[in-house]
Write a structure and sequence with these properties.
By secondary structure, the chain is α+β, with helices and mostly antiparallel strands. The chain is built from eight helices and 18 strands. The chain is 23% helix and 28% strand.
């Protein structure tokens, strides 16, 4: 892969970069999280952020959140996150592997890697933090005086995101769903930003990509929404699901991230496979198919299938009424199946699958 010229890199990433006049020392003083690393120092550092938390069995201890910073001179800064939800594993493993392999001499600029961002949830194997039951990816911009999850979200929002030119947040379907590996970008504010977001997704090279349209920049809530509120390019990816380890998703976590870092000039000399063309699709609220009754869901389609409006998506069987006919669930729109619910037992309102349609 050839090294892109500086004009290409800067046009895509830096035109909406955050202001660089903020005082890092002041931001660090405003968070209760202790940072043992010096983000401004060249070299390869690894350690643990200290999120102090008074629990039942550890009244005066802290939660250790792994962080790796690799810096070498001038250049862009990338933040790489896995484990935003604790039971989504491809990003966690892919970023740990990348952190071990990268050397200072490989880097131009700075890479900050947090493979297990929501460390309490990762250790518990849960989507939300066991400390407070909160979903980190619905907690931004957070609060320095809130619950542990809110404190962590505040640290990311006020200390880390302002350092960044680019953020990559790696997810999967967790316990609830399987996904066709895909990348997601937020709705842009102008055509130039839209082109930059699309370019990063194409470099990442997921089989499917789409623009997330909805809440984000105003109240933030998600990490991607907070990044866009601050004017920082963010790519989110869904890489598998079922609390398993998808080989395809893991390879995409490694290769996709490395490709993007190469193209923006942070890893200018790395050798990674060329990206395959991504399929741009659209997804809105109307593309989500939900259960309107509770029961046992029997899908009649598979991931990636092409489906038509009115086609049978599956049956919901009433396990408490064995002689009752199952409820038929039919697709409301045509397209391709992007995700499927995993647990067979569903409740009213559960999302059963998502259907996407091609852009254009």
């Amino acid at each position: 892969m050839g090294k892109p010229d500086a004009r290409t890199r800067l046009n895509v990433v830096n035109d909406h970069q955050p202001a660089r006049d903020f005082n890092l020392a002041e931001r660090l003083a405003q968070t209760p999280i202790l940072t043992p690393l010096d983000y401004d120092r060249d070299g390869k550092q690894d350690g643990f952020l200290r999120l102090y938390y008074s629990g039942e069995t550890n009244g005066y201890g802290y939660v250790p959140i792994p962080v790796i910073c690799i810096s070498n001179g001038e250049g862009p800064t990338a933040l790489l996150f896995g484990g935003n939800h604790g039971n989504e594993y491809e990003g966690i493993v892919g970023l740990m592997s990348l952190a071990r392999e990268l050397e200072v001499s490989d880097v131009r600029g700075r890479v900050i890697i947090m493979p297990s961002l929501n460390y309490p949830a990762v250790m518990a194997g849960t989507r939300a933090s066991p400390l407070d039951g909160a979903n980190l990816n619905r907690s931004f911009p957070g609060s320095p005086s809130g619950s542990p999850t809110q404190v962590l979200a505040h640290y990311v929002s006020t200390v880390l995101v302002p350092l960044a030119d680019l953020v990559i947040d790696l997810h999967a379907g967790g316990r609830s769903a399987h996904f066709v590996p895909c990348s997601i970008v937020q709705e842009a504010r102008d055509p130039h930003e839209a082109a930059g977001l699309a370019q990063v997704a194409e470099w990442f090279g997921a089989p499917v990509s789409f623009v997330s349209v909805g809440k984000g920049r105003g109240g933030s809530l998600t990490l991607a929404g907070e990044c866009m509120r601050q004017g920082v390019i963010c790519l989110t990816a869904e890489l598998g699901g079922g609390e398993t380890m998808s080989p395809q998703g893991l390879a995409l976590a490694r290769d996709g991230v490395t490709r993007v870092l190469n193209r923006i000039g942070i890893l200018p000399f790395c050798d990674v496979p060329a990206a395959t063309a991504t399929r741009w699709v659209r997804k809105g609220p109307e593309n989500r198919l939900h259960a309107h009754v509770a029961g046992i869901f029997e899908p009649r389609v598979s991931l990636g299938d092409t489906v038509a409006a009115g086609q049978l998506a599956g049956l919901i069987h009433f396990h408490d009424l064995p002689m009752a006919q199952p409820d038929e669930v039919r697709f409301e729109v045509s397209g391709a199946v992007l995700s499927l619910h995993i647990p067979a037992l569903v409740g009213r309102g559960d999302e059963l699958c998502t259907v996407v349609s091609d852009v254009g």
